Structure formats: structure tokens, C-alpha cells
Amino acid sequence: MVHPDALSTEMRNPPHYRVHWNPGERKGYSGVATFLKIEPVRIEYGMGREEFDREGRILLTEYDDFVLINIYFPNGKSGEVRLRYKLDFYSECLSWFENLRKERRKGIVITGDVNTAHREIDLARPKENSGVSGFLPEERAWIDRLLFLGYVDTFRHLHPDLADAYTWWDYKTRARERNVGWRIDYFFVSEDLLARVQRSEILAEVYGSDHCPIVLELKQ
User: Fold this and answer.
1) Fewer CB atoms < 10 Å away: N or C end of the chain?
2) Is the whole model's pTM more than 0.70, yes or no?
């Protein structure tokens, strides 16, 4: 993510939004930002684990009726060390999510780049990528565990059989022109919020990144 120091004042603080940033220690490598129109009850940065929080991957925004967790999950493609880091991050997140749900007694919304496609329908070439980080069995199993704990993949809930729906395409191979992509960006909600989900979409027609925006709308 671009570091906020590299942006103009207008881009750092767009009209009608309050922006909260959590940049990583290594500029331009990782970080998250949440743009808000409604002031939250509180903002929290990270999960309380220094080895994970130094990369600026988590922003928690709490409202009266739910908690929004904005996460940029690690990529495991650079080698065994980073894959191990990614899997450890995954494991720690599951415990943290459950502790939050018990402590806050509110619904949980989890969004961000999970860096894993869950099922074969979620990427264009599953067989060719079966041994690649982002579609490894142990990575996909983490999403299975998340769903087992009572969280719902809102896009797949509303569009169970929709194929060719992706959120990331490789720039180098111009994969977007051929729609050879991966669905690795998600909105998960705890089951107690499922009745409020009225829309979960992928805006594949919006350009500007190797990812495209995704949308979740909740009823009041």
C-alpha cells in the first residue's frame, strides 16, 4: 500500500470522509486504510501481536452494532518462510476473531485481501495452481475453518454457482484482458449479521489496480 506520507493532502483526507491509516514499517510493502463517513465507537490497530502488527495489516473499526475488521493477509508466494508466516497469521486471526466476538458481543464483518482462493470456482485455472501458494490445501482449509466457526462468505452465499467472478488478475501476463483471475478478496460476516446482508458484489468493471473493488451492503 502507498504510504500516506507520499500522498497529497487531498488524497490523504478526501472530502466527506474520515480516514484512518495503519501503514507497515516497510514503506510501500503493506498497510491498510479505512475511509469512514460515520464516526465509530473506537478504532484499533493490529491484533496485539508485534510480529504481525509491525506490517500494518489490520484496522478494526467498532460501531454500536458490529465490528468491522479490515485486513490485508500476507502473501505466501515468496518462499517457505513467508508461507509459514502467512499460516501463522491465519491461525492467530481465528483465535482473535472468536475472542472479539465473545468480548464485544457484536456481529463481526471481516474484509480484505485474504490472498487465497477458496474453491475451484474461485480461480480460472485451479489444476495448474494446485501447488501454488494462494490455492494450497492448507490455505483453503483455513477458510473452511472460518466458515465452520460460523462466518459466511457473503458473495458465495448470494451467488453460490457464479463462475468467472474474480477480484485479482496478474498484471504481468495481462490476465485481466482474458479474465484469468482469482477471487481472493472477501466480505465475511458472522451468522448473526447474515439477515442484514442485502448485497455482496464484485465490481470487475472498475480499474485502477490489479485488484477490483468489492461491495457489501447491510440493512440498517
Assistant:
1) C
2) yes
pLDDT, tens digit (0-9, with 9 covering 90-100), for 25-64: 888 789 999 999 999 999 999 999 999 999 999 999 999 9
pLDDT in tens, 99-152: 999 999 999 999 999 999 999 999 999 999 999 999 999 999 999 999 999 999
| Pairing mode of beta strands 107-113, 66-72 | parallel
Q: Which grid cell is 205? A: 468493471
CA angle 64, 94, 188 (to 5 degrees): 55
Is residue 142 within 8 A of residue 148, CB to CB? The reply is no
Catalytic residues: 113
State how far the Cα of 35 lies from the Cα of 193, in Å rounded to an integer.
Answer: 21
Q: CB-hemisphere CA count at 13 Å for 53?
A: 10
**How far apart (Å, rounded) are the C-alpha atoms in residues 192 and 20?**
27
